[in-house]
Amino acid sequence: MGNVLLNKVTKIYDKKKVIDDISFEVKDREFVVLVGASGCGKSTILRMIAGLENITSGEISIDEKVVNDVSPKDRDIAFVFQSYALYPHMTVRENIAFGLKMRGAKKEEIEKKVQEAAEILDLNEYLDRRPKELSGGQRQRVALGRAIVRNPKVFLMDEPLSNLDAKLRVQMRSEIKKLHEKLQATFIYVTHDQTEALTMGDRICVLDGGKIQQFDTPENVYNKPANTFVAGFIGALPMNFINGSIIGRDDVILGVRPEKMFGGNDISIEVNVESVELLGSEKIIHFKVEENECCAKVDAKFEVGQKLKLGISKDDLHYFDKNTLMRV
User: Fold this and answer.
1) What percentage of the chain carries pLDDT values higher than 90?
2) What is the dihedral of CA 30, 33, 39, 41, to 10 degrees?
3) Cα–Cα distance between 158 and 271 in angstroms, integer?
4) Is 48 exposed, middle or buried (0-12, 13-18, 19+ CB in 10 A)?
């Protein structure tokens, strides 16, 4: 069982709470993504699970065993770093085998596991090369191979694709998902990239200021954001926010996604186009609704200064409390 449980975990650096009383569970064989902006605490959480950071208070359990005082090497986890952390003087084969060799595994076992990892990651033809002879994607696969041969219950991945170009990131996202399905292990994956979170995770943990803002499926995080932070952070474009009101209650913040600004007929608003961004076949147009900065994703031709009529469906509106900023 590779379930991971955090119970009321807090981390304090220099009298500042960087992780503030968080609790969540990652189920056995689940793929959970921790996502948030720089400094939100996501990498600190990963390092605490790995045992690379001490916790100030609370409990961390792996496979239903409290591991607060268990050393990293005895937690049955594998950590994949952002920097790959490969030994430049070693071949791919030696890099993948290094951890097993240090643990005193037999030569036959090491060779068997290295070969299995190379097959899974399509690295057979590179086993005798050194890291400098590999592309970024190949180096990342070597780092994954070093983790795979340990056959851990839990894989921890800290922004493993951030050093790759956009095209290679898309390819490696798919490869890591396939790897998860093959290995049937628990994956906890850290990223600041909302697209990675939405496309890879079985569930997403959205973090801000050391606190969990929402922990849910990608569909619910996108379609039913818990608060204005989640609504503005998750998505290729942030949600538009407009001050409004609902009959019979206090004023609210209305939210509508940029791709939902057209096609409805419940609400009609006329605006002036202030700027236009070209994104291949699509365009992003910017405008104001009263004093609220907004944008819309469109596939038609619009020009700066043009008047534009928006048509929004009531079903595409989100409502947030103006004081608490929580979904209502």
Assistant:
1) 75
2) -20
3) 43
4) buried
pLDDT of residue 56: 97
Token duo for residue 41: 């605490």
pLDDT tens digits for range 280-289: 888 899 999 9
Residue 184 burial (CB count, 10 A): 9
DSSP result, 75-141: S-EEEE-TT----TTS-HHHHHHHHHHHTT--HHHHHHHHHHHHHHHT-GGGTTS-GGGS-HHHHHH
**By C-alpha distance, which of 268, 254, 262, 313 is closest to 284?**
262
CB contact at 8 A, 199 and 173: yes
CA dihedral 28, 163, 114, 67 (to 10 degrees): -40
pLDDT bracket for residue 137 (50, 70, 90): confident
Question: What sections of the chain are H helices per DSSP?
Answer: 42-50, 92-102, 107-121, 136-148, 166-183, 194-200, 218-223, 228-233
**Which pLDDT band, with edges at 50, 70 and 90, does 158 fall under?**
very high
Burial class (CB in 10 A: 0-12, 13-18, 19+), 77: buried
Residues in the chain: 328
Structure tokens at 79: 């950590």
Q: pLDDT tens, 219-232?
A: 999 999 999 999 99
pLDDT in tens, 266-278: 989 899 999 999 8
Residue type for 264, please? G
| pTM given for the model | 0.91
Beta strands in 14-56 (DSSP E): 16-26, 31-35
